[in-house]
Design goal:
Elements: H1 3-25, H2 28-62
Helix pairs in contact: 1-2
Length: 63
């Protein structure tokens, strides 16, 4: 698994926690930070997926 995918999953998890805590406590700043972390994690995971697909295509082409 690509390191971007791992980082992405970690950021999504961290963001989910911040979002939930912010929502539960009424802390809109923490909630917004959580949403940003989740978005960052999704982008990292997508980038990792693209890298994995490109690597797999290259490996297939080589033989």
């Amino acid at each position: 698994m690509d390191k971007d995918r791992i980082s992405g999953a970690a950021n999504k998890a961290k963001g989910a926690v911040k979002d939930a805590v912010g929502s539960a406590t009424g802390d809109t700043k923490t909630q917004a930070e959580g949403k940003m972390d989740k978005a960052k994690g999704s982008a990292q995971s997508a980038a990792g997926g693209v890298k994995d697909a490109a690597r797999n295509a290259t490996d297939k082409a080589k033989g």
